[in-house]
């Protein structure tokens, strides 16, 4: 019995419009006109005899049937894409596009990449550190390391590691006119904040310090610059354990106090469903997990 199928060439337009909730953004992603997307979706609706979108003057939203259908279509298209990649030669098989933050790349990943290259000489890693969540389709990203609370839609997200936050500073600040000996001494020093806006107020509250303004000090858009400022004695940073571990080990930074708090954000390795069928992606994911397990205190897998 022949399959009952919709117009197959129209499905990418429908999936993109459902993902963006915008015909214009779908058209931009697919490099076609707004009218072409609208006609493709209308073609599916006419063929199936259902309404996929409620169309407003300036917006569209999925109907309940459309939302359910979009989820299934997205899964099917991802499976077809993965099968196509597995079945055809890839001219860029030796290039791996990795997305992560500049801080994680500079302070943790890059110093270890030589070990990956040594074991995978045929794979060239290209890092994207734009600071925004990359789109795996439009940005050509193969795999990402994300720092957040998880729940990333439309992709596989594996828990990688937890992280702690605690004050760090140059050893110079343990001496001088106002040496750092107890949390209250922070009133004499500049606080350093990074782009993730880790909450000094929470740490100070846990430390029992009520007379230090948690909002004062210097703020950097880049976590890398924030760490560098701490290394050069510009103030005290509420540092993330992964980003300051090398500087602590080298003695460029010290922990003036013992109190550490568990971060609400966690690290995840993220990739499209079925992506591990590609040798280069699986190789990097396996290497990354092994590096974290061997070199990251407190990196325990869920379950």
TrEMBL record:
<keyword id="KW-0238">DNA-binding</keyword>
<dbReference type="InterPro" id="IPR036390">
    <property type="entry name" value="WH_DNA-bd_sf"/>
</dbReference>
<dbReference type="GO" id="GO:0003700">
    <property type="term" value="F:DNA-binding transcription factor activity"/>
</dbReference>
<keyword id="KW-0804">Transcription</keyword>
<dbReference type="GO" id="GO:0043565">
    <property type="term" value="F:sequence-specific DNA binding"/>
</dbReference>
<dbReference type="InterPro" id="IPR000847">
    <property type="entry name" value="LysR_HTH_N"/>
</dbReference>
<dbReference type="InterPro" id="IPR005119">
    <property type="entry name" value="LysR_subst-bd"/>
</dbReference>
<dbReference type="InterPro" id="IPR058163">
    <property type="entry name" value="LysR-type_TF_proteobact-type"/>
</dbReference>
<dbReference type="Pfam" id="PF03466">
    <property type="entry name" value="LysR_substrate"/>
</dbReference>
<dbReference type="Pfam" id="PF00126">
    <property type="entry name" value="HTH_1"/>
</dbReference>
<feature type="domain" description="HTH lysR-type">
    <location>
        <begin position="6"/>
        <end position="63"/>
    </location>
</feature>
<dbReference type="InterPro" id="IPR036388">
    <property type="entry name" value="WH-like_DNA-bd_sf"/>
</dbReference>
<comment type="similarity">
    <text>Belongs to the LysR transcriptional regulatory family.</text>
</comment>
<dbReference type="GO" id="GO:0006351">
    <property type="term" value="P:DNA-templated transcription"/>
</dbReference>
<keyword id="KW-0805">Transcription regulation</keyword>
<protein>
    <submittedName>
        <fullName>Transcriptional regulator GcvA</fullName>
    </submittedName>
</protein>
């Amino acid at each position: 019995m022949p399959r009952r199928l919709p117009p197959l060439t129209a499905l990418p337009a429908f999936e993109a419009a459902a993902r963006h909730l915008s015909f214009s953004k779908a058209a931009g992603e697919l490099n076609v006109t707004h009218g072409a997307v609208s006609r493709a979706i209308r073609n599916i609706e006419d063929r199936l005899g259902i309404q996929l979108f409620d169309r407003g003057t300036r917006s569209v939203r999925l109907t309940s049937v459309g939302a359910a259908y979009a989820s299934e279509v997205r899964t099917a298209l991802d499976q077809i894409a993965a099968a196509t990649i597995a079945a055809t030669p890839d001219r860029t098989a030796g290039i791996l596009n990795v997305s992560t933050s500049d801080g994680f790349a500079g302070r943790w990943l890059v110093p270890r990449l030589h070990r990956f290259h040594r074991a995978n000489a045929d794979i060239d890693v290209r890092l994207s550190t734009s600071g925004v969540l990359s789109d795996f389709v439009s940005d050509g990203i193969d795999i990402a390391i994300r720092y957040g609370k998880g729940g990333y839609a439309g992709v596989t997200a594996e828990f990688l590691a937890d992280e702690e936050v605690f004050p760090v500073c140059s050893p110079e600040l343990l001496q001088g006119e106002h040496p750092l000996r107890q949390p209250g001494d922070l009133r004499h020093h500049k606080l350093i904040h990074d782009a993730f806006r880790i909450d000094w107020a929470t740490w100070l509250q846990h430390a029992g310090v009520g007379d230090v303004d948690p909002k004062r000090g210097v703020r950097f858009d880049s976590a890398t610059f924030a760490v560098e400022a701490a290394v050069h004695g510009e103030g005290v940073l509420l540092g993330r354990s992964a980003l300051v571990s090398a500087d602590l080990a080298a003695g460029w930074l010290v922990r003036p106090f013992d109190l550490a708090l568990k971060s609400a954000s966690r690290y995840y390795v993220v990739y499209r469903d079925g992506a591990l069928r590609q040798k280069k992606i699986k190789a990097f994911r396996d290497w990354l997990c092994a590096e974290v397990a061997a070199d990251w205190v407190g990196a325990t897998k869920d379950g």
